[in-house]
Amino acid sequence: MRKRNFLISAALLGAASFMLTGFDSAATVEDVMAKYMEASQSLTEFSADATLNAQIGIDMSSDASGTSTLSVGGTGDFTMDYKLDPLTFGMSGNLDIGAMGVEQNMNMQIYMVPADGGAYELYTYIDDGSGAGGAWEYESSTVDEAEMEEVINSILEAQKSMDLSTLPGTWSLGEEAVDVNGTSCYQLLYTVTYDDLSDLIADAMSASGETMSEEDAAMLALVMNGLVFNVEVDVDAATYLPMRMHMDMDGSDLSGINSLLSIVMASSSTDESVSMPDIELNISDLYLEAVYDYSTPVEVTVPDEALQAKDSTDGSQSDDLEDAMEDSLESIEDALESEAE
After folding, report:
1. Of 187, 188, 195, the residue nearest 168 (C-alpha)
2. Are 300 and 90 in contact (CB under 8 A)?
């Protein structure tokens, strides 16, 4: 299990390099995409500042009680440092989550660094905001450097052969240059909808030997129809390296999701005399953005307090990061239930 977790981490880090993948008004989207991919292939290190924002409202209305709104939101700020040779990764940041007036702040840090003998070490810190504070945890991997490099190299090889224009959806090029921290950039714009993805989903399920019932397919279409996923990659007009990436769901039609919510609410009542409220989901803001920096050589330094965790454990008894995240989410759910009572 521990070896698999490290291999998955390596794959995600390699995929991060793919995601990173003078202004000429006559340039075409095909030209910029090709040069962007070529430049990304040689990218071996970067730093990035990432932000996310999700602000969602759930309106519940009925003849008896009028309309009330449940607000759910979250914001996050993260700093990341990535280096391919040797494979090294560091991330620190905060995630603020709020619902029904209950706020929770999470602080997290993650460092994955090579160790003597070709192994890798993972240091994690999570303070879930409950007031108990956080603690550093340490894991050592049984994955050696050669295995890590094999995973990364396979991703990079796939990256070299990938043609972005073959992805489902629509690519376009912004008509004007945009400025990112003083750098003139092309705007690569990508939009994908469920109509674009439906055949890909069906092919993937067929290839895996799985099938989807007509009922499940109709439910999936009900939820996904109308959703729009937008990606903007601002590409340096001189080097063609990505300087900023922005993802959002602007322009999405949520009527399908709202219909499903109404169906669920209606089916949850066993008393036909009770009128269930109408439910409508509203997204006021939902985006993820990363701004990249290549000006400073990447150096990932594990904090001294994290190294002390290494001295106090053999590296085999650490809790999994996913378990810590689940514990934090459960504490939020408990707080919400208490608030509702």
Report:
1. 195
2. yes
Question: Could you tell me which of 249, 202, 256, 199 has the C-alpha nearest to residue 224?
Answer: 256
Residue ranges with strand state E in 41-128: 45-62, 66-83, 88-99, 102-114, 120-127
User: pLDDT, tens digit, for every residue of 225-246?
Assistant: 888 999 999 999 999 999 999 9
Q: Distance (Å, rounded) from C-alpha 287 to C-alpha 228?
A: 12
Cβ burial of 188 (10 Å; 0-12, 13-18, 19+) is buried
Q: Please give the DSSP secondary-structure letter assigned to residue 115.
A: -
The whole-model pTM stands at 0.75
pLDDT tens digits, 63-120: 666 777 788 889 999 999 998 877 889 999 999 988 877 888 889 999 998 887 667 8
Rounded to whole angstroms, the Cα distance separating 70 from 48 reads: 33
- Report the distance separating Cα 39 and Cα 23, nearest Å: 16
Q: How far is CA 3 from CA 6, 7, 120, in A?
A: 5, 6, 10
- The answer to whether 240 touches 184, Cβ cutoff 8 Å, is no
Is-contact 59 282, C-beta < 8 A? Answer: yes
- pLDDT, one tens digit per residue, over 83-94 is 887 788 999 999
Asked, as a colleague might, if the bond just before 86 is cis with ω within 30 of 0, I would say yes
Looking at residue 131, its amino acid is: G
How far is residue 188's CA from residue 247's CA, in Å, rounded to a whole number? 12
- Bridge-partner residues for 289, per DSSP? 51, 246
221 DSSP β-pair partners: none
CA–CA distances in Å: residue 39 to residues 56, 155, 236, 241: 37, 16, 10, 6
Query: Could you give the angle at which helices 255-267 and 214-224 cross, rounded to 10 degrees?
Result: 130
Q: Look up residue 167 and give its DSSP letter.
A: S
